[in-house]
Design a protein that fits this description.
Number of domains: 3
Largest sheet: 4 strands, antiparallel
Distance between the termini: 95 Å
Number of helices: 7
Helix content: 40-55%
CATH topology of the largest domain: Tetrahydropterin Synthase, Chain A
Organism: Simiduia curdlanivorans
Strand content: 15-25%
Protein name: SPFH domain-containing protein
Order of helices and strands: EHHEEEEEEEEHHHEHH
CATH superfamily of the largest domain: Band 7 domain
CATH architecture of the largest domain: 2-Layer Sandwich
InterPro entries: Band_7, Band_7/SPFH_dom_sf
Structural class: alpha+beta
Radius of gyration: 39 Å
Oligomer: single chain
Keywords: Membrane, Transmembrane, Transmembrane helix
Subcellular location: Membrane
CATH class of the largest domain: Alpha Beta
Length: about 280
């Protein structure tokens, strides 16, 4: 397993001055020196010419992976014009923060319902040696493993829970699901020298073939919940009305009349339409 090591390099600006000085000296000796000196100066000029190929540029948030005939020699992260062994191969690896958005995947959730899901993964390379040498193409590896982690996560949790189900759901616990997705993606990408900064669901919906049925189910659940709230409030209002009438001795009602009053009030309070009252112009009974 490869681990990133610091690739020592020299300032490219200083090396330009040094190489210019040696090159100028070589030209001078070739022109003015005797034959043996000219030969040495010619050899020195060839070496200086080769050394010019040791100059390279490192941009901010970039690393240059240095190799000598296939052997890893280190990673240079020093920004600016640098110089190193001209025989080194130098591969640029971006250290910037990047994001990847998966396509819309069609996966069955934990309840077997087909859903469409997509995610955004924010990542960056933290170990250039692992990114270059442990996987064939680290960018493609991030794409494939992120989608695989998203599929696996989707099959582990339901889209939404039933009344008696208290499991985590994809729709109802977005923050917890995002953290679990980030953890799972990180486990898969750790061997590639990649750090996952954030993972979020960017799309979540039922598949088109069941979307209409699930919408009707959601509407029915909402209607039932609203009915429960209305009935609960109506019962409280009726109770308060009867207690207030009894406390202030406005009217004395027996059990039969109380039952009739409760029935009428519940019809008025729980009905979908406004009640049409009928005034009693005769006696109370």
């Amino acid at each position: 397993m490869h681990t990133e090591i610091d690739g020592k390099s020299r300032s490219g600006y200083l090396m330009i001055l040094v190489l210019l000085a040696f090159q100028g000296m070589g030209v001078f000796l070739i022109i003015t020196g005797p034959m043996p000196v000219k030969l040495l100066a010619l050899l020195e000029s060839i070496v200086v010419f080769i050394c010019w190929f040791g100059l390279y540029m490192v941009h901010p948030n970039q690393g240059k992976v240095l190799q000598l005939f296939g052997n890893y020699k280190g990673t240079d992260r020093s920004p600016g014009l640098r110089w190193n062994n001209p025989l080194y191969s130098k591969r640029a690896v971006s250290l910037r923060v990047r994001n990847f958005e998966s396509g819309r995947l069609k996966v069955n959730d934990a309840n077997g319902n087909p859903i469409e899901i997509a995610a955004v993964i924010v990542w960056r390379v933290v170990d250039t040696a692992e990114a270059v040498f442990e996987v064939d193409d680290y960018e493609h590896y991030v794409t494939i493993q992120s989608e695989a982690a998203l599929r696996n996560l989707t099959t582990s949790y339901p889209y939404e829970h039933d009344e008696d189900d208290h499991r985590l759901t994809l729709r109802g616990h977005s923050s917890a699901i995002a953290e679990k997705l980030r953890t799972e993606v990180q486990e898969r990408l750790g061997k590639a020298g990649v750090d996952v900064l954030e993972a979020r669901l960017s799309h979540l919906a039922y598949a088109p073939e069941i979307a209409q049925a699930m919408l009707q189910r959601q509407q029915a659940s909402a209607i039932l919940a609203a009915r429960r709230l209305i009935v609960k409030g109506a019962v409280g209002m009726v109770k308060d009305a009867i207690e207030q009438l009894s406390a202030e001795q406005v009217v004395e009602l027996d059990d039969e009349r109380k039952a009739a009053m409760v029935s009428n009030l519940l019809v008025v309070l729980c009905g979908e339409h406004n009640a049409q009252p009928i005034l009693n112009a005769g006696s109370l009974y």
